[in-house]
């Protein structure tokens, strides 16, 4: 480390530190350049001593950097140091530019004012952030592909159940009627067996429709989101004996298949959670679209929770995590408001204008 003869001695830690430290005088001439700075900027201390600090800054940033330093010199920055404005860029001896983070402190001495600049090379951090962004983008693409594949598989299974198994049950019912005619009159025992078989076939039809609808209601594809939500709440009310009111107004907006599926699945998951956790007797479901957003609100009168308890529980509830992931893929937001004995309010906002989803 080389320093100006007029600069007061500094503690040895400056020489041994792994982070670059540069000290300049009132005229912005370099008077100290520690070994860490030599490694980062690829200059020796002798090459930069008494030269203007601007040689370490890309030309397009020199004026802005000089203003930062002058401001702190004139305002008397604290000895603790104050972070300089961002972004900051350094210039190596070989012409390579790199991002850096810097803080500055002012040192007043009998021989004048000196400014010590503490630097940190942000190249590695920037590379890590880029890698993280790339990883998040990859996970988003994977999540989108999995959700899309899952919906396609549900649609396929629902159609197969409705068409193939439904036709088989219909044929079985017809065969049973023909058998009953062929062996007429039936004994009391035989008639009882026929009635029992008809009851089993009817139960199988009911279960088939319920399972197929839970997988993927056909009306969501054929009639759209409002009809599917009306069916969902009616089925929910009939199945669990809960009072459910709906207010739906999407205007003339034609929602995409993806958005319709997301909002339907969110409503479905919200109602399922109410049954599992809320102990509610009344539910209000609202769906409306403005010129810019579609908003889905599901509110119950259940036991509610504290925000702290809810925050701890959310990571453990895969349904809520999946809900948030679906909405995030549409650049939407999910907010949950609750209080003890005050029920829970779930609100989802999704912009109508959607960029292409990652493929």
Main attributes of the structure:
single chain, 359 residues, seven-stranded antiparallel sheet, 12 strands, 21% strand, elongated
Describe this structure in words.
50% of the residues lie in helices and 21% in strands. It has helices at residues 13-16, 35-41, 45-48, 62-75, 123-182, 188-215, 218-222, 225-240, 257-278, 307-313, 318-329, and strands at 2-3, 21-24, 30-33, 82-83, 88-91, 97-109, 112-121, 243-249, 282-289, 293-300, 333-338, 344-351. The strands form 2 sheets. Strands 1, 2, 3, 4, 5, 6 and 7 form a 7-stranded antiparallel β-sheet that branches. The relative contact order is 0.07. Mean pLDDT is 83; it is low at 77-82.
Give a brief rundown of this model.
The protein has helices at 13-16, 35-41, 45-48, 62-75, 123-182, 188-215, 218-222, 225-240, 257-278, 307-313, 318-329, and strands at 2-3, 21-24, 30-33, 82-83, 88-91, 97-109, 112-121, 243-249, 282-289, 293-300, 333-338, 344-351.
Query: What profile does the largest beta sheet have?
Result: 7 strands, antiparallel
Unreliable stretches? 77-82
Helix and strand composition category: alpha+beta
Radius of gyration of CA atoms, rounded to a whole number: 35 Å
Terminus-to-terminus distance:
54 Å
> Could you report the average pLDDT, rounded to the nearest whole number?
83
SSE sequence, one letter per element: EHEEHHHEEEEHHHHEHEEHHEE
Compute the number of strand runs: 12
| Helix fraction by DSSP (H/I, runs of at least 4) | 40-55%
Summed up, the helix count is: 11
User: Quick one: overall form?
Assistant: elongated
The fraction of residues assigned to DSSP E strands is 15-25%
């Amino acid at each position: 480390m080389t320093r100006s003869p007029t600069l007061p001695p500094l503690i040895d830690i400056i020489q041994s530190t792994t982070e670059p430290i540069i000290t300049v005088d009132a005229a912005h001439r370099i008077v100290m350049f520690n070994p860490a700075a030599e490694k980062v900027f690829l200059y020796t201390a002798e090459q930069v001593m008494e030269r203007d600090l601007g040689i370490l800054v890309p030309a397009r940033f020199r004026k802005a950097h000089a203003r930062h330093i002058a401001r702190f010199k004139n305002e008397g920055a604290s000895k603790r140091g104050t972070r300089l404005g961002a972004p900051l860029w350094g210039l190596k001896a070989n012409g390579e530019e790199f991002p850096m983070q810097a803080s500055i402190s002012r040192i007043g001495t009998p021989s004048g004012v000196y400014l010590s600049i503490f630097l940190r090379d942000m190249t590695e951090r920037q590379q890590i952030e880029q890698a993280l962004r790339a990883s998040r983008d990859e996970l988003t693409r994977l999540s989108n592909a999995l959700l899309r594949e899952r919906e396609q598989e549900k649609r396929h299974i629902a159609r197969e159940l409705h068409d193939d198994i439904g036709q088989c049950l219909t044929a079985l019912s017809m065969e049973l009627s023909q058998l009953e005619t062929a062996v007429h009159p039936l004994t009391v025992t035989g008639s009882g067996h026929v009635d029992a078989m008809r009851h089993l076939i009817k139960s199988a039809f009911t279960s088939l429709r319920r399972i197929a609808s839970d997988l993927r209601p056909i009306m969501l594809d054929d009639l759209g989101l409002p009809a599917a939500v009306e069916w969902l709440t009616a089925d929910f009310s009939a199945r669990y004996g809960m009072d459910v009111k709906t207010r739906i107004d999407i205007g003339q907006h034609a929602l995409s298949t993806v958005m319709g599926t997301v909002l339907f699945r969110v409503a479905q998951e919200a109602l399922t959670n109410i049954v599992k956790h809320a102990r509610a007797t009344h539910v209000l479901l609202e769906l409306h679209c403005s010129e810019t957003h579609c908003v889905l609100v599901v509110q119950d009168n259940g036991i509610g929770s504290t925000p702290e308890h809810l925050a701890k529980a959310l990571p453990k509830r895969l349904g809520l995590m999946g809900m948030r992931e679906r909405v995030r893929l549409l650049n939407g937001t999910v907010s949950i408001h609750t209080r003890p004995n005050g029920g829970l309010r779930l609100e989802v906002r999704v912009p109508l204008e959607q960029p292409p989803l990652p493929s």
